[in-house]
Amino acid sequence: MRSIRGHWKCVIIGILGLLALTTTKAHASAMYSVTDLGTLPGTTQSEAVGINASGQVVGVSYNTSPHDSDAQSFLYSSGALSAVTPLGGGPANAINDSGLIVGGNITSVNNSGDYTVDTGSAGPNLFQSGASSTNLQLLEPYHINDSGLIVGAYLPPGEAIHVGIFRNGKLSLPGEPGGGLSVNNAGDILAIVTGQQNRTVIYHSDGTSTDLSKIASGSGAMGRALNDRDQVVGIVYSSNSIPDHAFMYSSGQIFDLNSLIPQGSGWQLTQAFGINNAGQIVGQGMIDGAQHAFLLTPQAVPEPQTFVLYVVATFVGVCNLRRKRVGNP
Length: 329
Fold this sequence. Notes:
By secondary structure, the chain is mostly beta strands. It contains 2 helices and 26 strands.
């Protein structure tokens, strides 16, 4: 009887200990692996700005600035980094699922190969679909989705900039100052709303919105990319407007991406620029004193119930072994 009571006492203590462990350490486990994308020969720094569904990454490798004459656009694919010349020139801005890379004045490309052009003062900004060009009027285009919906900043002369949407040949405004930064294939729009304090907002296609202003732990924050699961990645700035850390918004929660990678990795993730529908994230961070492009890949995490059953079973096995040893010296 004593051995049975001792057995269940051992199990109960183990379960209580496990509950305490899973409650206090739930956020300590690494959820992403980190890949250092390195730099191209002759350069010392890099940043990754876009990723497609296959996990191919584009970005820029440079010495002083991504816009310097010696900067080189890169493609990271199948574990290798190579120099590329994007359509539109450098620096690289985006890559679609077919591997078409755009850069320079071409700000974005969708999976049909349609793209947007920001010509600056050289002429009207354009939506290019095959051989057909459409004048985007006063819209500075930032991003296009697969149905051809374009978001950006509306720049009326002598007025404040506004979030602008170009759809089916027509320009519309949500009514708030700022700029549209990204749009997913559901038509949800990620925007920066300017005012007394800048806010990052998701305008959902059903007419509702989500304000992510609580992400700011410093002077402010800016979302940079939105996937089809409404996951957002971006940058939180310090009080002197310097990038402090990369963040992700997912299912109503804000995460410092540095809390989701292995402890002791040596990385300080400062900026996140892209996320695909598989949850892979690209951006820039500090590693060994240098600014390098990174790729985060989600790791398979067992369901909590499975993990609990596994550990309890292991603990029970240890208790049984201890009881046998005590009973049979």
